[in-house]
Every structure is written in C-alpha cells, then in structure tokens.
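Q: How do we represent a protein-ligand complex in a form that can be generated token by token?
A: Start from the inputs.
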Amino acid sequence: MSTALPHGVAGIHALPADHHDGPWDSVIIDPRVKERLLATAVLVLRHGRRLAGSPVAPHGLVVLAGPPGTGKTTLAQGLAQAAARTLAPHGATTLVEVDPHAFPSEMLGESQRAVSRLFRETLPELAARRPHTLVLVDEVEALAVRRHAASFDTNPVDVHRATDAVLSGLDSLRAQRPGTLLVVTTNFAEAVDEAFLSRADLVVHTELPDESVVPLIVADSLRGLAAQWPELAALAEDTAVHQRVGKLLTGLDGRRIRKTVHGALALRLETAREPALLSVDDLVAAAEEAATARP
Ligand SMILES: Nc1ncnc2c1ncn2[C@@H]1O[C@H](COP(=O)(O)OP(=O)(O)OP(=O)(O)O)[C@@H](O)[C@H]1O
Ligand SMILES: [Mg+2]
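Then emit the structure tokens for the protein with magnesium ion bound:
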C-alpha cells in the first residue's frame, strides 16, 4: 500500500488481483459490447507500442458515456481487471485512478499546470513500472470541459486551459508511453470536448436496462444476498419473482434496481434483523414504492 499518492491520483493498483474480480461480471449489458471493450483494451495495452507511429495507431482512449447509475464506473474498473487477467501471461497491469476533482478550476493557471504535470510526468512515470497501464478518469467532464460550451462569463478561463492541457497531455502521454490506455467515464457526453471524443478508439453509450435485463439485475442482486444468507437461495432462483419485480422496476437505472432489492430488507425491522426472512411480498412492496417514486 503506497502512502503518499502523487497529486491528482486517487489510487494505484497492481492487477490482476482476486479482490478486483466481480465488477466486470456484475454489469449486465450486451456481451458484444463487453467484448469490444475488452478487445480494444487488450489491443492497446498489448500492441500499442508496436502500432505506434503507424497511421492506424490507436489513441489509447476509451469513453464510457451514459446516464447516472448505468454501470460506467463499474465497467471501467471491471475492464481493468478483465484486461489484466487476459494479459497476465505477458506481465502485470497497473490501474491508476485519477481524481478529476483534484484540479480546482478557480485556481487560475494552477489547474492547467497540475493537469499538464499529471500527463507529462506522473502518468508516464507510473506507466514505466509495469508492462501494461490503464488510467481511469472517472467523471471526465470535471476535467475536460467542452471549450465552446463553457462561456467565459460563467466559467473561469482556466477551465478552457485545463481542457487544452488534457488534450495535449493525452497526446503527450501517447507519444511518451504508447500502449497506455486511458478509460474515461461521463454522464454528460455533451459537456466533454469534441476534440477529446474524436480521439477515442471506442465510445460506449451505456443505457438504462431494458425489460429483459431488469429481472436479471434483480436476480443478480438476490444472488448476492443469498451468498450471505443461504436461506434466500430459493428466492434468488425464482425467475417468476424476478419477472414480477422486474416489471415494476423497468425504467429505473441499474443502481436504483440494486438499491430497491437491498432496500426491501429495511421495510421491516424483522428482516433488517434477520435478512433470511426476506419474502416475495417485501420485494414487491419495495418495488412498488420505487416505481411510484420514479421521476
Ligand atoms: N446494466 C447493469 N447491470 C447490473 N448492474 C448494474 C447495471 N448498471 C448499473 N448497475 C449497478 O449499479 C451500481 C452503480 O453503477 P455505477 O456506479 O457503475 O454507475 P455509473 O454509470 O458510474 O453512475 P454515475 O454516472 O452516477 O457515476 C453498481 O452497483 C452497478 O453494478
Ligand atoms: Mg460513475
């Protein structure tokens, strides 16, 4: 465990690591999308250096864009572990988590310098440590604000400079350490600079789960509970219940769906004390409540 992390870095992890298993499988989306994500990551991480300089060289940028609670952060973290597992025979992978809020735009000039230092010094140094490096920038809109949308009246000039710093930083990282993959998430794709988006090797738009996926998320959440309370195994395998609850929850995001299942434990003191007593009625009541609270 490193104690002092470089400025702007929220975490550094050596992968693959068993405790990073889980996120990749927990997000239920079209398997073809997951395959594209994994393939893009593996190509950049494994062959980015060899492709460098060629006209088809990847930029090393993957963008996950979509509404809140649709699994972007979970997928990005899962992708790091899934890619690290795939690449393990060729060496370990470093996952670097950037904290986009570490660059306050009100400090004129300072955030631009800090972002620039991150991409030109900190990340290249970190990327030299292991054969593969994946950098995760969660909520990139905090960092790369679309330049023409950010008006000079309402946004400090420094915001524009920070965006420029990210763009040139990205190019510099790619030149210094080809094969480094930057994965960024945003729930506001409109706010992210076009020049940034146009550099992406892959843009994945995450969406609200449709009516076929909602029951699967309900089931997966119940299986998670059954792992702790084996008495709930029957409920976790009862597809008719998942369908019934899922119908009520269709239209909500994945986070709300999982929270509703867990929230069903807290409708009654009895189930809060002893989750093994969770009933179909509890689940339906929680789902009905979530459905009426729907925006
Ligand atoms: N399609 C899905 N299948 C299964 N679980 C999902 C799905 N979408 C979201 N979840 C669950 O919802 C929770 C929140 O997901 P996550 O934090 O990754 O969303 P996000 O898109 O990053 O949201 P935000 O934009 O608010 O940061 C996680 O527990 C995740 O597993
Ligand atoms: Mg997120």
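The chain has twelve helices and six strands. The beta strands are 9-15, 61-65, 93-98, 132-137, 180-186, 202-205.
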